[in-house]
Amino acid sequence: MYERKIPLSLNCGLDLIGEVLYGKWKIRLLWFINEGHKRPSELQRKIPDASRRVLNMQLKELEEHELVCKKIYPVVPPKVEYSLTGFGETLIPVISVLGQWGDDHEEQLRSVILKRSEKLFV
Of 6, 36, 51, 88, which has fewest CB within 10 angstroms of its CB? Predict the structure, then answer.
């Protein structure tokens, strides 16, 4: 069983957000579910760099944090769809603003990210 190496620190809103949204694909999953991509296979196609296992783990965590809900249809083969909860929908404007900030500063962000990656692999 998993045991945390670093104890939880939930002293402020940023700590709380970090705990809920930490994960490489979580913000993109929320965004794509909001856009109407609800089936796991659709989400996998939207994020091809992520393994199915990691996407499933992060979807499960989003579900545990009550940001998405999972509906399993009683058919063969099983059909699963994800949707945002009301709580999850409150994050969409925040994600939109973050995305716009990234677009507005794309050149500088790309430059500093590439510089850092060059240092790591030299």
Answer: 6
